[in-house]
Tyrosine-protein kinase (Acanthaster planci), 503 residues
Amino acid sequence: MGGVFDKCQKGVNYQARHPTRANGADNTNRYNQSPRSLAPPAVLPRPQDDGQRDIYMALYKYEARTEGDLSFDRGEKLKILDYSGDWWLAKSLVTHNEGYIPSNFVAQVKSLEAEDWFFRDCTRSDAANRLMVPSLVPGTFLIRESETKPGTYALSVRDESSGFPNVKNYRINKSTDGEFYISAHKKFPTLQDVVEFYRGGDNAGLCCRLTDSCPKESPTTKTLGRDIWEIDRSSMVLVSKLGSGQFGEVWKAIWNSKTPVAVKTLKEGTMSPEAFLAEANIMKEMRHAKLVNLYGICSEKEPIYIVTELMKNGALLTYLREGDGKYLSLRVLVDMTAQIAQGMSFLENRGYVHRDLAARNILVGENNLVKIADFGLAKLVLDENYVARKGNKFPVKWTAPEAALYGTYSIKSDVWSFAVLVAEVVTKGMMPYPGLTNAEVLDQVQRGYRMTKPQHCPDSLYRIMRKCWLEVPQDRPTFEFLYNYLDDYFVSQEPEYKDPEGF
């Protein structure tokens, strides 16, 4: 390989100094340990079969996309006939029609999930971001499962009594006889009763009276429909080009004349179709709230289409440079990095490596929600296309030295890239290593140089970035640690829970 890479081989021999450790063993240090475990959410037991067991409530409106689907309105009750897979067979108790429905659009009647104020998988920082949306009124609230005590709950409320919006948090305790309370002087048999009481005329010791439930966005369906993976190319209409990159072009498209999607068209010859199909079957199992949802593929001829959910605000890099992202506060920017670390922690736990983690491969939805895109594609690109001989296509400034010099990719090389991404975010899209060429970065980094602290980057955040750039890959933090650290970055400076006043 010529150019930049030949010059780097003349520098310090990285592999000789840091041989791969047997069995992939990690050094034990505090950055590879999580400050709190990511415990799985508690699962509510199914209610007694009182005739309501198979009756579900629609949480969102859904319009049928295929002949076999069932349309329904928010609040409509449905009887589930078959629970198989992500698409359940249901009968509407309103229209009496039958068809398949997305299972994540409904919840069992009388369950907590059926309450519009209940957010099970919601962290404290996520609650703060949701409740700080400018259009919300004081008293807007949600109840979430406690992060520190799974199976218990917390109330988060928007308060403006100090003259500016902030979010107050109250622990909802549970007595030995199963009653719920915020103040020990007033206990309730259910969370629904807690909400009803604090929605009353008096704030009853809270910062303010509870008013509206925090809005929920409609989720994306896990696939476009039941048993849909290989998509008929003729059902896809490309509407407008959103961008282009090393893999191909990205388009806004309409599927089946009604469903907006994003389509990535892969350049012919970019990768082996056989290798892509094998990898796509793995990628479709990687489902997480912080990963872009892969709907399906069009692979019967080239160019191959990758069909994903459409993210309203496009690539994070463009959003920060040219969109509303350039007005975001540091608090929101750090939260974005926490969301990315959360998605990468999911991949980390499954032994999956991204290989091309950068702001250009992160997509932005509503309310500054971000998701990771293009995971797994980089390793499929044929060498002569991906690693150009002049080095101009290789993402040098984002790539860990062991990956750039020797092709040794791992989740720890993703950790290195993540810290470069953090620099992109806090500078709102500035090029990493300002003033240095790709060749200079490769040469200097292997000699121990690291990117200087970006403008407006707090010292504490930069210290964590430097840990991600440690020379020995196994000494770098885990993504689980990074997620927990960043998710608590501002929250840890505030009291965890507020006590009710006047009780």
